[in-house]
Amino acid sequence: MKLNLEVELDWIDEEMNIDDTVKQNVINAVVNKIQAKIESQVEKSINAIIDKNVVTKINKMTEKLFNDFMKREITITDQYGDVIKCYKSTTEVIKERFDKFMTQTVDEKGQTYDGSYGHKYQRLTFIIDKQLKDFANTFTTDAVKKVSEEIKLHVKDGLTTKLGSELMKVLKVNEMLQLNE
Fold first, then answer.
1. What is the largest CA-CA distance in the chain?
2. What is the pLDDT of residue 25?
3. Range of 5's domain?
4. pLDDT value at position 20?
5. Residue 21: inside a domain, yes or no?
6. Lowest-pLDDT range, 9-13, 86-90, 120-124?
7. Residue 35 within any structural domain of the chain
8. Tens of pLDDT along 102-154?
9. How many domains does the structure of the chain reveal?
10. pLDDT over 90 (residue 46)
11. Contact in structure between 119 and 125 (CB atoms under 8 Å)
């Protein structure tokens, strides 16, 4: 441990000599430095423990509140206060609303169907069809690119071979080299 101390001597008691005064000031300075360091470490430890405990308790309370909310009974009423429908839990409401959302009628753009002309679908069917079309388009595009590249390579190789042999006949290379055909 390294300590940097500054000792300021304003006055010296008549009863103490300079050695005693310096000694006492050094001791006081060392004690104050060590005390400050210990206080800082203890404060950090306490804050860490408090943070951990507070976060744990907040998480438990949040989980309890959420579970209580999800289990509570819900009653839907109209504007006059008459009961329209009762649900045993929030989960039932969420499931019903999700089912309605997925079976809702939509147009060819996926927007809620407003009764105008055009095709109409259930949202779930629309989503599945859209995903299948996207997959098919991607797959087809990739396959066409791959096949086109392979066809180009084979045509190039075939033309190179065929043109090469035809060019040799036209130029009469075999005769010049005196090769038998």
1. 131
2. 77
3. 1-69
4. 73
5. yes
6. 9-13
7. yes
8. 989 888 888 887 777 777 888 899 999 999 999 999 999 999 999 988 888 78
9. 1
10. yes
11. no
CA distances 123 to 107, 114, 115, 120, 160, Å, are 9, 14, 15, 9, 55
Q: Evaluate if pTM is beyond 0.85.
A: no
Measured in degrees and rounded to the nearest 5, phi and psi for residue 119 equal: -75, 150
Q: State in Å, rounded, how far the first CA of the chain is from the last one.
A: 98
